[in-house]
Amino acid sequence: MIDRLDHLVLTVANLDETKAFYCDVLEMGFEVFGEGRQALTFGRSKINLHIQGKELEPRAYLAKPGTADLCFILSGSLAAIQSRLKAASIPILQGPVSRTGATGPITSIYVRDPDLNLIELATYDR
Structural domain of residue 101, as residue ranges? Predict the structure, then answer.
């Protein structure tokens, strides 16, 4: 019955820091839509952003920065993103390591975003 995930919501403490990480380092897009709503965009998906203390309704029961654990599949190589992370002084917590993605084996690295969410960056082993 479910086809795909359309979007998810992250509650963030600092919009500028969030945009710098996701847009400048990970090359996601940014858009403002509706009544001042904001989102990170990539592929056919988006991440809506709520500012801590100014969350839009309805919202998650416990909407707090740093509570997410997300995996993004890269269109490029792990080496390329590792270089971008190093240039931005973002430490790699772990990896490259073998994991299992939604459709098969992946190789991943792990970092934290400005709100300390765990971010997995991966490529499929095909």
Answer: 7-124
